[in-house]
Specification:
Chain lengths: 265, 405
């Protein structure tokens, strides 16, 4: 059993797991490992580590900004693998690499999946690889014990939800709203998300379901994920960093926020 | 016709939207229903006599098709070799070939009941064509355009606004076509239920490259008939400029199986293919995924997309349509690049010899004549797609001439 499956197996019945997204190399190359470890200490159950891309077309301005900064900071795929290795010296938290296909393709799918496993990566989320195209990476990922996590959205048919379930390992990622990434008004999201998650639950039966997009408070998370196994937060973390970095204590501000996301105040 | 008995040897894309190793649909799950719906509707429409009749009627009455084939006698004399013919897409309503596709896609949008249209534009020609078609059918139109391109192509911005379109300035990244396309896709992801995205070139996820080709095939079909009428035979050479590659595909496609026709696509070298300021995707690019399909791309070793450069906003794009990538690998089409300076010299030459001011994009194809013509003979024929007129570029052209004289 890998680290992702393990964390879902050990989840308490009423607990909502928290998966946190951070762009590798944002706000600087040195902080990424500390941020991951600090996230874990403050309640994160899984980490989604963003592989920056110059043209993130499913992302809103927040993640675009963090990707631009990370690329300017000189992030590379090998540096991302080094970061994961550093984390692995101290932690067994599941790490999922998330990003667009082009940098992976350029690195070489075979080499990428091998290096990822060696570094201690557990899974991959690649938003521009829909079910139709996952042949480009599926075999190599399986060979190197990397889970492929597919996304489903409110406009995904029942049929495709079933296919996403069959072709995913680890969990299925529910995009709560049709749109790009970014923090949103919580009530706006939770009003529409209930029926969607119900439909996901009816069709996704093999895998746990995590819900993301638009969550920025503990209250949002609890209501949006009420019928899911957990929730994913990304843009709200980047926004918090943007507001405090590089002031003294920016990390503890961020960790306080992370703690509140999982546990409330 | 003899073509009906001939076996088709070129059948791309396949059912998955691939042209050899290129193409596909690399888009987020949210867009998959929209793409599937579009593919189904397009497949129905293209074989629907009522749809084709309406489209043909509009191309005739509104766009002004068929466009003429003009014998360029003075340009021919200038080189003193093969006869040069011009396929006059510059004479289309709005001044470029782009309207063929915009009208076709607007008709599809209407069939699908989508009332909100979005588009990306580089030079502004596709934006103008889309704004035009939307005005004609009373549809809401939003055009994404890079901030830098809005300066370079101010006239087209004003034209779009006059026709009721909203032009949204894109300030991310290079502030040109690549980033305008990113923003249009983000809009589409957000408003997918109500919105039809009219892509302006043979790029993007399947079925766009195939659909855009279909709406531009009329260029090559007419040209073939016209050259046969004028010369009773196929040309020896076809020449067109390639950015994303829509005018080129439309012009080339009906000749792909005519093996005796040499086909040449010209891309923008910018300051030179090795200058680091270039848009020569086929010459300098490597395979990669951008804007929903796998094709040649200008990219770094880390797979980050590099900024393209061309004096022509319409060619200033780090990718190229997947079918062009495949035609290059097949060796069926030869691709070369010419610099900003060579293109500008071609603008002057065509203006002086033929009284036709070409678009800067189009001028890249004409610039290749300097290299091609000495290799031709007097009994041969070169046919060039004159994809657009240069009025929109007068600011850039005048400034360039002032600076270089």
């Amino acid at each position: 059993m890998n680290r992702i499956q393990n964390v879902f197996k050990n989840k308490k019945a009423d607990e909502k797991l928290m998966s946190l997204f951070i762009t590798a190399g944002y706000p600087d190359l040195e902080s990424t490992v500390d941020l991951i470890l600090g996230f874990e200490e403050n309640g994160a159950d899984l980490i989604e580590l963003g592989m920056p891309f110059s043209d993130p077309l499913a992302d809103g301005p927040t993640i675009q900004h963090s990707s631009d900064v990370a690329i300017q900071n000189g992030i590379t795929m090998n540096k991302i693998f080094e970061m994961v290795k550093e984390v692995r010296k101290q932690s067994e938290i599941p790490i999922i690499l998330m990003g667009y296909m082009n940098p992976v393709l350029r690195y070489g799918v075979k080499a990428f999946t091998q290096k990822a496993e060696e570094a201690g990566v557990d899974g991959l989320i690649i938003p521009d690889i829909p079910l139709e195209e996952d042949g480009i990476i599926k075999e190599h990922a399986a060979k190197n014990n990397l889970d492929i996590i597919h996304l489903v959205a409110p406009n995904t048919s029942d049929e495709r939800m079933k296919l996403a379930d069959e072709n995913s390992q680890g969990f299925v990622y529910c995009v709560s709203v049709t749109g790009v990434t970014g923090a949103r008004d919580g009530e706006e999201v939770s009003n529409s998300v209930g029926r969607f998650i119900e439909r996901v639950r009816a069709n996704v039966t093999r895998n746990p379901v995590m819900v993301g997009f638009g969550i920025k408070t503990h209250k949002d998370a609890q209501s949006i994920a009420s019928n899911a196994d957990g929730f994913i937060v990304g843009s709200a973390l980047i926004d918090t960093i943007k507001n405090h970095y590089p002031d003294e204590g920016w990390q503890s501000e961020l960790f306080t926020f992370v703690h509140s996301l999982k546990f409330g105040n | 016709m003899s073509t009906q008995t001939k076996t088709k040897t070129y059948n791309f894309p396949d059912e998955r939207g691939y042209y050899g190793q290129f193409g596909g649909k690399f888009v987020p799950e949210i867009l998959i229903p929209a793409i599937q719906e579009l593919e189904a509707e397009f497949d129905k429409a293209k074989d629907d006599p009522a749809f084709n009749e309406e489209l043909a009627g509009l191309l005739d009455e509104y766009v002004g098709r068929p466009t003429k084939l003009t014998y360029a006698n003075r340009l021919t004399e200038h080189y003193g070799k093969a006869k040069i013919y011009l396929k006059r897409e510059d004479l289309c309503h709005t001044g470029a070939h782009k309207i063929n596709n915009a009208i076709g896609q607007v008709l599809l949008a209407r069939r699908m009941g989508k009332k909100r249209i979005i588009a990306e534009t580089g030079a502004g020609q596709h934006g103008v064509a889309t704004a035009t078609a939307c005005a004609k059918f009373g549809l809401e139109c939003i055009v994404y355009m890079g901030e830098e391109d809005m300066v370079r192509q101010k006239l087209n911005v004003d034209r779009m606004r006059l026709m009721g379109a909203e032009v949204r300035s894109v300030t991310s990244g290079s502030r040109t076509l690549k980033d305008a396309t990113n923003e249009a896709i983000r809009d589409w992801v957000t408003n997918v239920d109500t919105t039809f995205y009219i892509i302006g070139s043979v790029v993007g996820p399947h079925p766009y490259p195939k659909m855009v080709r279909h709406f531009h095939e009329v260029i090559g079909n007419e040209a073939k008939e016209q050259i046969h009428k004028a010369e009773d035979r196929n040309p020896n050479y076809l020449l067109a400029c390639v950015g994303g590659g829509s005018n080129a595909i439309g012009f080339f496609y009906p000749f792909i199986e005519d093996e005796s026709v040499k086909i040449i696509g010209i891309e923008a070298a910018g300051f030179g293919v090795d200058s680091g300021k270039t848009a020569a995707t086929m010459t300098k690019g490597t395979p990669g995924i951008l804007h929903g399909s796998l094709s040649y791309l200008l990219q770094s070793d880390e797979g980050q997309i590099e900024l393209a450069h061309s004096i022509s906003a319409g060619l200033d794009y780090p990718g190229v349509g997947p079918e062009h990538a495949h035609l290059k690998d097949l060796g069926r089409v030869q691709y070369y690049a010419v610099t900003d300076e060579e293109a500008m010299n071609a603008v002057k030459l065509l203006s002086e010899t033929e009284g036709i001011i070409p678009a800067l994009e189009t001028a890249h194809a004409f610039a290749w004549l300097k290299k091609l013509m000495p290799e031709t003979s007097e009994d041969e024929i070169v046919m060039i797609n004159l994809s657009g007129r240069g009025d929109k570029d007068m600011g850039t052209i005048s400034e360039y001439i002032r600076e270089h004289e």
